[in-house]
Design brief:
By secondary structure, the protein is of the alpha/beta class. It folds into two domains: 4-123 and 304-319, 3-Layer(aba) Sandwich (Rossmann fold), CATH 3.40.50; 126-302 and 331-348, Dihydrodipicolinate Reductase, domain 2, CATH 3.30.360.10. It contains eleven helices and 15 strands. The strands form two sheets. The chain has a nine-stranded mixed β-sheet. The protein has a six-stranded parallel β-sheet with strand order 3-2-1-4-5-6, sandwiched between helices.
Length: 351
């Protein structure tokens, strides 16, 4: 059985929870290398996962004999590392968001096109069974044309601790961190139309807070933990229109005085029917009577599905479900949301 040799750059929580175990447990993967700015953490991870620790990503790309690599660093480091990996002849899985800026996304897109290597973006929600079931319903034509959609992830008090709140490291707040999941999933479900106009508003009104039960998750790295910087939004909202006439609203928060609703919620409105996610419902008419049906879809380990899909693409030279060109479009939307908020004006992406 053919195996691919894989390395991981950035040994934080996302690597420990999802990438490292799923690579190690895959029958067609040999997990051979890890690297991190924190050499002690890289050495400990190497011992734990049976890999070799490298002092730098450059050394790992050059000397580890890799076929593919996962980039799991803070967001603003994604582009440079992914480009180096592509130039070294490696296939790349880069965590979401693909980059921290649209300029970086354009550079990475060009590098991927020039290299001829695979670059997959870790848009994990696309690999959920319920999201894939919803995608199948849309593509069947059962809902007709999707002309309006809503997506949101709302945390009442869920600001992460560490590099996430520093724009220099993350590129943005909840819209970049968790809103990207909702934005990508709903755009994919809508058929990935071209974005026409964007009106965004990013609010920084509540965090950092002193709520006793506050807090959500913590980065493993020490970056931005001593006298932490908080210069990103705690609530992001946006209204987007597309070249096919459809429209979309997106909301994402780490801190807001409202109902806690941490699950990703999506609503699709079509000319023949509608659908909502979490739980999955379909809304239609039967004999001129409005009816709704709840679909019980078995859950799955969608991060494992994501890693399995990447390995499949590397082995068989297939294009991934979430590729670099789609990652670029998502970054154009996120960039437009930020620019719209700064200018308090509509951003036009199509001439």
């Amino acid at each position: 059985m053919k195996k691919i040799k894989v390395g991981v750059v950035g040994i934080g929580a996302i690597a420990h929870i999802f990438h490292l175990p799923n690579y190690r447990n895959h029958p067609q993967v040999e997990l051979v290398a890890v690297t991190d700015l924190d050499t002690d953490r890289a050495n400990k991870a190497a011992d734990e996962w049976g890999a070799k620790a490298f002092a730098s990503a450059d050394a790992m790309f050059r000397d580890a004999g890799l076929d593919a690599v996962s980039i799991c660093t803070f967001n603003t480091a994604h582009a440079a590392l992914a480009i180096k990996a592509l130039e070294a002849g490696l296939d790349v899985l880069v965590e979401k968001p693909m980059t921290a800026t649209v300029e970086q996304a354009e550079q990475l897109h060009r590098a991927a096109e020039q290299s001829g290597r695979i670059l997959m973006v870790g848009m994990s929600s696309r690999y959920r069974n319920d999201v894939r079931a919803m995608k199948g319903i849309v593509e069947s034509g059962e809902l007709g044309d999707i002309y309006f959609a809503k997506a949101r992830i709302i945390r009442r008090r869920g600001v992460p601790f560490g590099w996430f709140t520093s724009k220099e490291l993350s590129g943005g707040g909840p819209m970049m961190d968790i809103g990207v999941h909702a934005l990508d999933a709903v755009w994919w479900l809508m058929g990935m139309p071209k974005t026409d106009k964007v009106m965004g508003k990013l609010f920084h009104k509540i965090a950092p807070y002193h709520t006793k039960t506050g807090g959500f998750y913590e980065a493993m790295s020490s970056n931005n933990k001593e006298n932490p910087v908080y210069d990103v939004e705690d609530l992001g909202t946006a209204y987007l229109t597309f070249d096919n006439g459809a429209a979309l609203t997106v909301e994402a928060s780490w801190a807001v005085n409202g109902v806690q609703d941490d699950a990703m919620k999506i609503e699709l409105f079509g000319t023949k029917g509608g659908a909502s996610l979490d739980p999955l419902f379909v809304f239609k008419e039967a004999n001129l009577i409005p009816v709704e049906s709840r679909l019980d879809i078995e859950g799955n380990d969608y991060y494992k599905e994501e890693i399995d899909h990447f390995v499949q693409c590397v082995l068989h030279r297939e294009q991934p479900v979430s590729d670099v060109s789609q990652g670029l479009e998502i970054m154009r939307m996120l960039d437009a949301i930020g620019r719209s908020s700064e200018k308090n004006d509509v951003i036009r992406l199509l001439d």
